[in-house]
Design goal:
- This protein is α/β, with parallel strands linked by helices and 353 residues long.
- 31% of the residues lie in helices and 18% in strands.
- The chain has helices spanning 2-26, 150-160, 192-207, 224-235, 261-265, 269-279, 297-307, 326-344, and strands at residues 32-33, 70-71, 80-85, 91-98, 105-111, 128-132, 167-171, 210-211, 217-222, 242-246, 284-291, 312-319.
- The protein has a 10-stranded mixed sheet, with helices on both faces.
- β3 and β4 form a beta hairpin.
- The longest helix has 25 residues, at 2-26.
- It is globular.
- It starts with a helix and ends in a 9-residue tail after the last helix.
Length: 353
């Protein structure tokens, strides 16, 4: 009997501990979040008037000393609300963005690493990783769910010296859950290509300390999100430098392209890669990830063989026993892809002295 009582008591304590941890995870959810302790942005007179507009350059007085590639938040600031808290005290928060260029309005989640709030980095930019989901990609972005472990993997990688401390920006990918839009401006449809390539980066520059050059900008994504990230890097190599594309498709396949072949071709990574090869650059970096228990590796290998040359740098990471899901793709990132992309992008620079 006493053994039974002891076991029951232990289970009760264990359950209480788990419940306490769960309550801590959700503690503060819905509350206002203010990211960073950077110097004040440019005066309101020099900043655009809406949260979704393309922010103008800050005034000369707002530019930090040192690296001319650093851009302080241009404003206006968005209203962030906490959606999750990690064990290290960092938070994931959500805001609503009205895209000035696309005309689309949708939710965006953001996470910043602990280093972003440290005084020694208060005038440094941070690299940005735009994380795109697969599936419907609406009304949420599953990378904002702490259970997948993306943010934790980055934090652990920073401490281990294998990852840069990325700002992770997680927008919705599609305007509804009925169709997928290939992250493109399909004629007659919401301009999701402009949303991803212009509005989301503009929002990021408005709210965070970022690099002006493409050396601080990259994508990661899974499935259809991998396709969109890869396609966007190839479309705008002057703005974005790299992508981690996990279990993704290689060519556009939205049913909404019917009757718009020319526009579809303009969003085809194969054609975009060849165009970049013919132009001789700039260099872009594509790291494919694929689980050994899923299909699609042959498509990645074919792309690498045909287009992985000249300025198009490609690698393929096989995730042993990996399946087509975010948990396994995060494992692949921990096993090497985070270190790979960290060597490609620009690190934040702490103050000296």
């Amino acid at each position: 009997m006493w053994i039974s009582v002891a076991v029951a008591f232990a289970l009760l304590l264990g359950g209480a501990g788990f419940a306490a941890r769960k309550l801590e995870w959700f503690s503060g959810n819905g509350g206002s979040v203010s990211f960073g302790k950077a110097p004040a942005p440019a005066p309101a007179s020099s900043a655009p008037g809406t949260a979704g507009s393309s922010p103008g350059a800050p005034s000369p007085s707002a530019a930090p000393a040192g690296d001319p590639d650093v851009l302080l938040p241009t404003g206006p600031r968005s209203d962030f609300r906490q959606t999750a808290r990690l064990d290290d005290g960092t938070v994931i928060a959500k805001t609503r963005l009205a895209g000035a260029k696309s005309g689309f309005e949708g939710d965006v989640w953001v996470w910043t690493p602990k280093e972003y709030d440290e005084a020694k980095y208060e005038k440094s930019a941070f690299p940005v990783l735009i994380a795109l989901p697969g599936g419907n990609g609406f009304p949420s972005n599953y990378w904002s769910d702490r259970s997948l472990g993306l943010q934790k993997a980055i934090g652990e990688g920073v401490r281990a010296g294998t990852s840069l401390p990325f700002i992770v920006v997680m927008p919705v990918l599609n305007p509804d859950s009925t169709y997928y839009y290939d992250g493109a401006d399909i004629p007659g449809r919401p301009k999701m290509g402009t949303w991803i390539a212009e509005d989301v980066p503009a929002f990021t520059r408005a709210n965070f300390r970022t690099y002006k050059s493409r050396d601080g900008w990259a994508f990661m994504g899974s499935s259809s999100g991998a396709f969109v990230g890869m396609k966007t890097v190839l479309q705008y190599p002057d703005r974005f430098k790299a992508v981690i594309a996990s279990g993704g498709e290689i060519v556009p396949d939205s049913p909404l392209w019917k009757g718009h072949q020319a526009e579809m071709d303009a969003n085809n990574p194969e054609k975009l890669a060849q165009k970049l090869i013919d132009a001789g650059g700039p260099e872009v970096y594509i790291n494919f990830q694929v689980g050994t228990k899923e299909t699609g590796r042959e498509r990645m290998a074919a792309f690498q063989q045909s287009y992985g040359k000249g300025p198009v740098k490609t690698t393929i990471r096989d995730i042993q026993n990996g399946e087509h899901n975010g948990w396994h793709y995060v494992r692949g990132m921990k096993e090497g892809s985070l270190e790979w992309i960290s060597k490609v992008l620009k690190a934040p620079q702490p103050a000296t002295g």
